From TrEMBL:
Positions with a binding annotation for Zn(2+): 94, 203, 440, 479
Neutral/alkaline non-lysosomal ceramidase N-terminal domain residues: 2-508
Cofactor: Zn(2+)
Pfam families: Ceramidase_alk, Ceramidse_alk_C
Domain Neutral/alkaline non-lysosomal ceramidase C-terminal as annotated: residue spans: 511-678
Catalytic activity: an N-acylsphing-4-enine + H2O = sphing-4-enine + a fatty acid
Molecular function in Gene Ontology: metal ion binding; N-acylsphingosine amidohydrolase activity
One cellular component (GO) term of this entry: cytoplasm
InterPro entries in the cross-refs: Ceramidase_alk, NCDase_C_sf, NEUT/ALK_ceramidase_C, NEUT/ALK_ceramidase_N
Protein name, entry field: Neutral ceramidase
GO BP field: ceramide catabolic process; long-chain fatty acid biosynthetic process; sphingosine biosynthetic process
EC code(s) of this entry: 3.5.1.23
């Protein structure tokens, strides 16, 4: 038995003009909202409250070091020594459709146009608020665990790299992806359901890099379905039950199950370089199971939800035992790894290889880079040497056979381009150990790490530990491929930034943490070197938010394009308003909803909200015009099972008015469509 608390809070941030984080495509800039992003927090405490563990899963691309440091600082100010770097795990779901700009290392500025305070603040505040809610609602309860297999939801997107792993190792596994889902169920002592955490390894990239609507992708859709199911009669984002679908060792795992095809010719491009005969690598794209990316997101999300629900309902194995957590900061560019009694190797200063620029079949890169490059390219290397400087001989030798594109560990202007100081962390709740990994482990890397940690627990008298990998935690360090996968330098290997022995170094470090927990010597672990905090103002290339203006004879919220009078179920109701920049709302609304769908009730002669902007069925598009004008289009994709009757769509925004003294005011406004009727087929 434990004390348990769960909490959920909005962390969406600005939904317009901010580059989305994930595909590193500078053209993929936010232009609206499909689903809200949430931070979901879970606190587990001993009954005597001597120890606590916090697990947070946030609907963001990854947790950045800056984000983590700011969250820890706020927690310290609020709660003293209760929530610390050792007992708080922050994990990102890895959606590729959330706002970027919350990083302090320079490499991540390039595609997200610098450090964007409103984006960072929204995530920090959302995480803190979710922890606050969980903290305020602690009650006695039980943890139950279950595991099972998810089918038809993943493919390995670098199968040729996977095949480099030893045959003797591969033969122990039935698939080149991890199909196992682990579900942790939380109920209070009266059996009331509190929430769940599911860990499953797949990239949330069902929405591709043409998408401009902020959303939480397939994992977020699974959370949405589970929470809608448990919080009956509540709007999305409301209700006390919290369902987190967290990331795991998803490095080489794609949800685009039809596999890679040449967009121009339709033939398969499942080859070691992922290239097409015509158009090369830029034409090779993987397709999801649906008719379009929305449909694919729904199908994959539904699969994940369905399995989680089944595992949740059947969960009977109780998690019991003491809580513990161990954490170290490590300089990952300088770890001495003992491979065996006689052989030691070292990690390297961070660097990205040529194939990093190729991207993957889920989101291809620019120019003519291909995956699997073990040779440099004199043209790009020449440009790189001129602009950014040549990698040192030492770094080149350390990373072999990776041809270095960006020697980020040797680039320090205006701040370092990549982290050296990285978090390693394990939190154990009785028989469950959560290994918090600062990046994306490939399938086989994850298997090796889990096995090593489990063995370490076993050998120190803590058998039968369930080891779960939580991905994208605490600081982002790209990918972690195995030594063998590293040799063929596909995207994941080229993005293994600390060199060929990165995985071995992590295994050594996490074994050390596991040993400390198992032998109760956590207090003797060295803290390690603290990460730096760079003094960055609001350094950004984002367009400034200017005053909003309206067309002649119109005001904010006026309807420009009206709804039809009648719709049937499965049709799309659509209305366009005179709009204002949604970035105004992100900072000035406490409870921001850009839209509602409302149904008219005869008996009370009033309107009731049936959908909001967190709903999967609504889409909010913002289009920027000239001279401060803009339009908002709201779509409601009327779902199967919608009650017949009279409805309307409302829009809520804020417009900016500049005052003479260099100040601005933000004025709320709303718009309402005409009423329309939903009729039977």
């Amino acid at each position: 038995n434990y004390l348990l608390g769960v909490g959920r809070a909005d962390c969406t941030g600005p939904v317009a003009e901010i580059p989305l984080m994930g595909y590193a495509n500078p053209d993929q800039v936010g232009g609206g909202l499909l689903m809200r992003l949430y931070s979901r927090a879970f606190i587990v405490a001993d009954l005597d409250d001597s120890r606590r563990v916090v697990f947070v899963s946030a609907d963001i691309g990854m947790v950045s070091q800056r984000l983590r440091l700011e969250v820890l600082k706020k927690l310290k100010n609020k709660y003293g020594e209760l929530y610390r770097q050792d007992n708080v795990i922050l994990s990102g779901t890895h959606t590729h459709s959330g706002p970027g700009g919350y990083f302090q290392y320079t490499l991540f500025w390039i595609t997200s146009k610098g450090l964007i305070r409103p984006s960072l603040n929204a995530i920090v505040n959302g995480i803190i608020r979710s922890i606050d809610i969980a903290h305020q609602n602690m009650k006695r309860g039980r943890l139950l665990i279950n595991r099972g297999t998810v089918e038809n939801s993943q493919i390995n997107r670098s199968p040729f790299s996977y095949l480099e792993n030893p045959e003797s190792e591969r033969s122990r596994y039935s698939s080149n992806v991890d199909k196992e889902m682990v579900v942790l169920k939380m109920v209070d002592e009266n059996g009331q359901e509190l929430g769940l955490i599911s860990w499953f390894a797949v990239h949330p990239v069902s929405m591709n890099n043409t998408n401009r609507l902020v959303n939480s992708d397939n994992m977020g859709y699974a959370s949405y379905l589970f929470e809608q199911e448990k919080n009956k009669g509540m709007l999305p984002g409301e209700g006390s039950f919290v369902a987190a679908f967290a990331s795991s060792n998803l490095g080489d795992v794609s949800p685009n199950t039809k596999g890679p095809f040449c967009v121009n010719t339709g033939e398969s491009c499942n080859n070691p370089q992922s290239t097409c005969p015509v158009g090369g690598a830029t034409m090779c794209m993987a397709m999801g199971p649906g008719n379009d990316m929305f449909d694919s997101t729904k199908i994959i999300g539904q699969n994940i939800y369905t399995k989680a629900k089944e595992l949740y309902e059947k969960a009977s194995q109780e998690v019991t035992g003491p809580l513990s957590s161990a954490h170290q900061w490590v300089n990952m560019s300088d770890v001495l790894v003992e491979l065996n009694a006689t052989h030691t190797v070292k990690t390297c200063k961070p660097a990205l290889g040529h194939s990093f620029a190729a991207g993957t079949i889920d989101g291809v890169g620019a120019f003519n880079f291909t995956q699997g490059s073990v040779e440099g390219d004199p043209f790009w290397d020449g440009i790189r040497d001129q602009l950014l400087g040549k990698p040192s001989n030492e770094t080149q030798a350390c990373h072999k056979p990776k041809p270095i594109l960006f020697s980020t560990g040797e680039m320090t202007w205006p701040h370092p381009w990549h982290p050296d100081i990285v978090d390693v962390q394990i939190a154990a709740m009785g028989s469950l150990a959560i290994v918090a990994v600062p990046g994306e482990l490939t399938t086989m890397s994850g298997r090796r790490l889990r096995e090593a940690v489990k063995r370490e627990f076993d050998s120190h008298g803590t058998p039968r530990i369930d080891v779960v990998i939580a991905g994208l935690c605490n600081v982002y360090t790209h990918y972690i491929a195995t030594y063998e996968e590293y040799q063929v330098q596909r995207y994941e290997a080229a993005s293994t930034i600390y060199g060929p022995h990165t995985l071995s170094a992590y295994i050594q470090l996490y074994r050390g943490l596991a040993r400390a927990i198992a032998t109760n010597t956590v207090q003797d672990l060295p803290r390690g070197p603290e990460p730096p905090v760079f003094n960055i103002g609001n350094m950004t290339l984002l367009p400034a938010v200017t005053a909003d203006r309206v067309p002649v004879n119109k005001t904010f919220g006026d309807v420009l394009q009206e709804v039809r009078q009648q719709y049937r179920v499965r049709e799309v109701a659509e209305v366009t308003f005179v709009g204002a920049n949604p970035r105004n709302s992100a900072e000035n609304a406490t409870e921001h909803n850009f839209l509602t769908v409302e149904r008219y009730t005869n008996t009370s002669d009033s309107w009731h909200v049936v959908q909001n902007d967190a709903s999967w069925d609504t889409r909010f598009y913002w289009t920027k015009g000239l001279l401060g004008r803009s339009k908002v289009t709201i779509e409601w994709h009327i779902p199967h099972g919608t009650e017949l009757g009279v409805y309307r769509i409302r829009y809520f925004g804020h417009y900016r008015r500049n005052l003479s003294n260099n100040h601005a005011v933000f004025i709320p406004f709303e718009g309402t469509s005409s009423a329309f009727e939903i009729t039977a087929l």
